[in-house]
Specification:
This protein has about 500 residues and is α/β, with parallel strands linked by helices. It has three domains: about 80 residues, Elongation Factor Tu (Ef-tu), domain 3, CATH 2.40.30; about 280 residues, P-loop containing nucleotide triphosphate hydrolases (Rossmann fold), CATH 3.40.50.300; about 120 residues, Lysin (Up-down Bundle), CATH 1.20.150.20. The protein has 16 helices and 16 strands. Strands 8-12-11-13-14-10-15-16 form an eight-stranded mixed beta sheet, with helices on both faces. A six-stranded antiparallel barrel has the order 1-2-5-4-3-6. Strand 4 and strand 5 form a beta hairpin. The longest helix has 19 residues. It is elongated, with a radius of gyration of 27 Å. The chain binds adenosine-5'-triphosphate (ATP). Adenosine-5'-triphosphate binds next to helix 3.
């Protein structure tokens, strides 16, 4: 071997010393004992904090997820190909966090907040920890401002308020994502920032969702966090917390935010994979014992702050997928008990053409009633009971051929109502359209319409109201009240339209 020039040796030594200094200052360095499936076990770091970021020799970052007597378990935020037994790991003394800022609106980012839409760097205004304690009771305010979904069946019977957590639950392909997306589309011009978090979905599905948002101009106020099925479990696990960190940034600045977590069943599965790899003991359905805490600490961060604390809000719409409509499975019951209500989408209804397939009997909204517009509350008064009676009567009478007049009328009224609650994709209804529809329907001003023609009749009637009597719609939108005289006027105009269209 050729002799080394002393200068070269000195420069190598200097380099080593420089690196040594960088790592050793306030830091501890450990070595990897084993690595695989996005998890590394590290020996030699004694004072790591839970949730602390660690850096591997090749620059890859990870997070401390498990602390044991002689080693720590780290989840890796990337491919583990460059890491092997003996690789050096250093503490950073920093909690895992994501960059946040106004520039994130309109962008698509990964679980760590890095842009993946090819539109270049995002200028961050700050850095927020991924895990953050939920606001305390003193900082909160009760929910009183509605968050309108634009979906008649939800706004009338299961109203959602800003700061509420409303679960969307149902089997696969029952329109869960569509309900959430339509809600985002309906926030246009309402000063609500939307954050859509895709967890463990196909990349093609995420691309489709983004194109729907773009088509309707909703990307102007929306950020998409995406961790697709091909990402490792740690990234899928962390993405909803990262999305919430950005939401908190806006909430503490006094903004209203809508968060969609699509979906938390896949999130629980990612956490299960991660926990089993960390050798935590499996419990029911092989989920670890703390799987309830996984979602409660996430959803508890959605709240409405009082003015002193910032005055903003985070409304959460988590999505859960059930198997064969089983609401009593482990993860569904957990999330049902954490949230303030659920919208249950049923596959039988969906397949029979009732879309959105909201099951009126099993859905509920526990706090939104206080936030519902007075006009809507009055117009929707008896709809829920009427529908429940209709469904019961429908089952009861399906085999009998000769029915008395009263029953026939009630069945007709019920089927008309069901038809009115159908709504195509991406066509939200405004408050006055919803109020006029319900007012006319509950006052039986649409009883003469054939069920099949109901949707078209509704559209024509609403157009007639807007063109011939625009002041009615304006009054509802401005005052958000429905005094008796206005209700009477709506019924009169509806009857006038009925006479015209006959
Ligand atoms: N109101 C509606 N009117 C017409 N079609 C609808 C409606 N809602 C949903 N669909 C259609 O139903 C299909 C399933 O919808 P969506 O993807 O929202 O369901 P999902 O429950 O989120 O599905 P997944 O289980 O794949 O997550 C889509 O093709 C969508 O276009």
């Amino acid at each position: 071997m050729a002799a080394m020039n002393p200068d070269e040796i000195i420069s190598i030594l200097k380099e080593e010393i420089k690196n040594y200094d960088e790592i050793s200052k306030d830091q501890e360095v450990g070595t990897v004992i084993s690595v695989g499936d996005g998890i590394a076990t590290v020996h030699g770091i004694d004072h790591a904090m839970y949730g602390e970021v660690v850096t591997f020799e090749n620059g890859l970052k990870g997070m401390v997820q498990d602390i044991r007597a002689n080693s720590i378990g780290c989840i890796l935020f990337g491919k583990d190909t460059g890491i092997k037994e003996g690789t050096k790991v250093a503490r950073t003394q920093k909690q895992a966090g994501v960059p946040v800022g106004d520039a994130f609106i309109g962008r698509i980012v990964n679980a760590l907040g890095a842009p993946i839409d090819g539109k270049g760097e995002i200028k961050a205004d700050g850095y927020r920890p991924v895990e953050n304690p939920a606001p305390g009771i003193i900082d909160r305010k009760s929910v009183t401002v509605p968050l309108e979904t634009g979906i008649l069946s939800i706004d009338s019977m299961f109203p959602i308020g800003r700061g509420q957590r409303e679960l969307i639950i149902g089997d696969r392909q029952t329109g869960k994502t569509s309900v959430a997306l339509d809600t985002i589309l309906n926030q246009k011009g309402k000063d609500v920032i939307c954050i859509y978090v895709a967890i463990g979905q196909k990349a093609s599905t995420v691309a489709k969702i983004v194109s729907t948002l773009e088509k309707h101009g909703a990307m102007d106020y929306t950020t998409v966090f995406s961790s697709t099925a091909s990402d490792c479990a740690p990234l899928q696990y962390i993405v909803p917390y990262a999305g919430t960190a950005l939401a908190e940034y806006f909430m503490y600045k006094g903004k209203d935010v809508l968060m969609v977590y699509d979906d938390l069943s896949k999130h629980a599965v990612a956490y299960r994979a991660l926990s089993l790899l960390l050798e935590r003991s499996p419990g029911r359905e092989a989920y670890p014992g703390d799987v309830f805490y996984l979602h409660s600490r996430l959803l508890e961060r959605s709240s409405r702050l009082n003015e002193k604390a910032g005055g903003g809000s985070i409304t959460a719409l988590p999505i859960i997928e059930t198997q064969a409509g089983d609401l009593s499975a482990y993860i569904p019951t957990n999330v049902i008990s954490i949230t303030d209500g659920q919208i249950f989408l049923e596959s039988d209804l969906f397949n029979s053409g009732m879309r959105p397939a909201v099951n009126v009997g099993l859905s509920v909204s526990r706090v939104g009633g206080a936030a519902q517009a007075k006009a809507m509350k009055k117009a929707a008064g008896s709809v829920r009971i009427d529908l429940a009676q209709y469904r019961e009567m429908e089952i009861f009478t399906q085999f009998s051929s000769d029915l008395d007049e009263a029953t026939t009328q009630q069945l007709k009224y019920g089927s008309g109502l069901m038809e009115l609650l159908k709504q195509p994709l991406s066509s939200p209804l405004s408050l006055h359209e919803q109020v006029i529809t319900l007012c006319a329907a509950t006052h039986k001003a649409m009883m003469h319409v054939e069920t099949k023609k109901m949707k078209k009749y509704q559209r024509d009637m609403l157009d007639y109201f807007d063109s011939a009597y625009p002041e009615i719609g304006r009054e509802i939108e401005e005052k958000r009240q429905l005094p008796d005289e206005l209700a009477e006027k709506i019924v009169k105009v509806a009857e006038e339209f009925a006479d015209k269209s006959r």
